[in-house]
Amino acid sequence: MAVDALTDVPGLRVGHATRTGEGWLTGTTVVLAPEGGAVAAVDVRGGGPGTKETDALDPRNLVQKVEALVLTGGSAYGLDSASGVMAWLEERGRGVRVGRDPAHVVPVVPAACVFDLGRGGDFRARPDAATGREAVEAAAASGLGARVAEGCVGAGTGSTVGLLKGGIGTASTVLGSGITVAALVVANAAGSAMDPETGVLYGELLSQGRTAYPAPEVHEVARRRLAEAAAKSPPPPLNTTLAVVATDADLTRSQAQKLAGTAHDGIARAVRPVHLLNDGDTVFTLATGARPLPPEAGPLALNELLAAGADLVTRAIVRAVRAAESVDGPGGVWPSYGELYGRG
């Protein structure tokens, strides 16, 4: 049964490790591929990315498949969480074979980080290898097709979107061809997810044709609350929105990279402005290869996936913002959209 999440792509699992309290407001999220890996690609549009092993995903390079992706808080420090995932994979012989002994593998684990340093109050409270291991173990322990926790969990724990609290969101769809496409997003943007004049979420306006705008009196109260929060917590200088777009389609590495690139359009529909120098916006693609593209459409068969990927990223950002919960702590104050305008 579909759960409207990344895990609707058969074989994919998602695990979170969340750290809150005593100066912490951060975490790590791992997407675990089926054993044997999945074709992967990446497209980076933000001007301040923090990544690891993304060069390995270039279609011109050697690595054909990856076993896991890591999304993490902690800025560049948090990339250390990928080490814990690598160790877990190595123990199971999962990775690129580099010798005759099946145990001689090098797990290639691409990773990307968001900036959330100090949002819990302690600048040095950030994910490490142990956090990454906890997240991959949580992914492995989850059942196939399991629901994915959204909101302030994993890499979305300390996320913000403009003056609002951000978080994790996910969504999926099944195309007419039977191919599944899904997205998972860590919404942590310097730009805003809502129209400042009306309070409506850009993503709902553009992707869902939303016409039920917040009542003017509700929006006025929300604007005052946001102004008060901004006075206590000036907008952070660095952010980043991360996404994973996955499918069970049989894609080449070049096709997967094209899917990652067009999925950025989904961020641009939900956040304004986007892809700034102080964002590190990064989109990964995973393709498990279980279903061929419809042969009768030829190379244009990819178009349906490209359109769906962007739409799902927009919807996942909306879900992330709506699922987030307010934070008022030593590191700052970030109201949630749900508290200000209702859960909808």
Would you give an account of this structure?
The chain is an alpha+beta fold and 344 residues long. The protein has helices at residues 75-78, 81-91, 129-141, 202-207, 216-232, 253-270, 302-323, 337-341, and strands at 13-21, 24-32, 39-44, 51-52, 68-72, 96-97, 105-106, 111-113, 160-161, 164-165, 167-174, 180-187, 242-249, 282-291, 327-329, 332-334. The strands form 5 sheets. It has a 5-stranded mixed sheet with strand order 1-2-5-8-4. A 5-stranded mixed sheet has the order 3-14-13-12-11, with helices on one face. A two-stranded antiparallel sheet has the order 6-7. The longest helix has 22 residues, at 302-323. The chain starts with 12 loop residues before the first strand and ends with a helix. The mean pLDDT is 95.
Task: Indicate the topology.
Layout: E1 13-21, E2 24-32, E3 39-44, E4 51-52, E5 68-72, H1 75-78, H2 81-91, E6 96-97, E7 105-106, E8 111-113, H3 129-141, E9 160-161, E10 164-165, E11 167-174, E12 180-187, H4 202-207, H5 216-232, E13 242-249, H6 253-270, E14 282-291, H7 302-323, E15 327-329, E16 332-334, H8 337-341
Parallel strand pairs: 5-8, 13-14
Antiparallel strand pairs: 1-2, 2-5, 3-14, 4-8, 6-7, 9-10, 11-12, 12-13, 15-16
Helix pairs in contact: 2-3, 6-7
